[in-house]
Design brief:
14 helices, about 0% strand, SLT_2, MltB_2, mainly alpha, Lysozyme
């Protein structure tokens, strides 16, 4: 948390000291260039230990962490989400992606049926998300997650949000779910075949094949079932439709707040399901 800014000139004596001692320990203020990054990381290390993360984990995960300028450039260049639905979906719903989605829907029919039985989310929706997020696991991203998350946590645009995600990434390591080296993904810190932020991993990742690991990077059953668990936990209604105006469309917006992205998930799922909305409503 960014500390409250106080002017020593405006405060005197014991009143100043009482206010300073009352302030919570926290990382250094956010920054808009790399100059203060190392100092910020040093402050964040202490904050993370204060939040209950072991010193060993903090040292292992943040050793050598570096400011990544390309992360900031990508964060500032998200104009694609301001495109019309026609422009956006035409770019993402290529004939080859649609064909591969249909093939994978058939190949994993038994798995997807078990997932739907447990979570109520149809396979067409899960395969649509899988295809749009990473090309069905072909491109999970290759950014070092701790570099990406620390860069965004330090940057002033969304520092509070990504400070929390960085803490959750440390908790993933601290609990033994993944090692720092395994945590590689997209530029905003998402990991796995359907791109979970660390907070979502901790809340929704499941070990669907019961092999003792919640592996969203290499394990298709875990990745798809975790996605279904996310949707169910955010209000997915079994048997209801997912197109705009239907009960489950707002749940797609919980997956991604950009309406054009939710609309594209719905359209892709319609194509895979061979109908409109997939539900009775």
């Amino acid at each position: 948390m960014k500390p409250t800014s106080l002017s020593p000139v405006a405060l005197k004596g014991g009143f100043l000291l009482s206010l300073l001692f009352a302030l919570p320990a926290s990382a250094a203020p956010c920054g808009r260039d790399p100059a203060g990054f190392e100092s910020w990381v040093a402050g964040f290390r202490s904050e993370a230990v204060g939040e209950g993360v072991s010193e060993a984990t903090v040292d292992a995960a943040l050793r050598g962490v570096s400011y990544n300028r390309s992360v900031i450039l990508r964060d500032r260049a998200q104009g694609i989400f301001h495109q019309s639905f026609e422009q956006f979906s035409r770019r993402l719903l290529s004939p080859s992606r649609i064909a591969k989605g249909k093939a994978l829907l058939q190949r994993h029919a038994a798995l997807l049926g078990r997932i739907e039985q447990e979570y109520g989310v149809p396979g067409a929706v899960l395969v649509a998300i899988w295809g749009l997020e990473t090309g069905f696991g072909a491109d999970n991203g290759n950014f070092r997650s701790f570099d990406a998350l620390a860069t965004l946590a330090y940057d002033c645009r969304r520092s509070e949000r990504f400070r929390a995600e960085l803490l959750d990434a440390l908790r993933i390591v601290d609990r033994g779910y993944m090692s720092p080296a395994q945590m590689r993904g997209d530029w905003a810190g998402e990991i796995g075949q359907t791109q979970f932020l660390p907070s979502s991993y901790l809340k929704y990742a499941v070990d669907f094949d019961r092999d003792g690991k919640r592996d969203l990077i290499r394990n298709i059953p875990d990745a798809l079932a975790s996605t279904a668990n996310f949707l169910k936990a955010n209000g997915w209604r079994r048997g209801a439709g997912w197109d705009e105006g239907q009960p489950n469309f707002p749940v797609l917006l919980e997956w991604n707040k950009a309406r054009v992205y939710g609309e594209t998930i719905a359209r892709f799922a319609d194509m895979l399901a061979g109908g409109s909305g997939g539900g009775a409503e």
